[in-house]
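Changelog note: in this version the structure field was regenerated for every chain. One regenerated record is shown below for reference.
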Amino acid sequence: MPKLRDFLEPALEGISRKLDLGKLFQEYSQGEERTLVLRTRSTRGIGEEFGFYVDTKNWQVGITESYGILEPTVRITVEENLMWLLAARQQNLFSAYFQNLPIDVEGAFVLRDILILDKLLELIHDCLLAEGIDLKAILAPG
């Protein structure tokens, strides 16, 4: 199976070049400066593979290694299998949180930040579809 990071990284670059993320997420952030990190933990138990972040101070998005952002406002960690489902939009982060799926959360105002991160996952999915990449098809049994 291909690595999810290989799909997410170009999608995040495309999103940051094409969209005014500040306007897009203004309704969620309410003017606060926050740094949100959504990390992926390997299902093999070897450790975290990567994460991506949203910085509402300057509305940057990108990929970060391990604990590259030392003190984010909120850090959400999911297992790699769940991240595939989130990126393919077969699951959304908000409902996954309430279904008690394997999600570790650190920080305050988590529900609002989950909405922001879920919206970013939706944008990633749409960006990939526009490029002809369907993560659902990749996940489908062969």
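Spot check on this record: Helices lie at 5-18, 21-29, 80-87, 93-98, 110-130, 135-139. The chain has one domain: 5-135.
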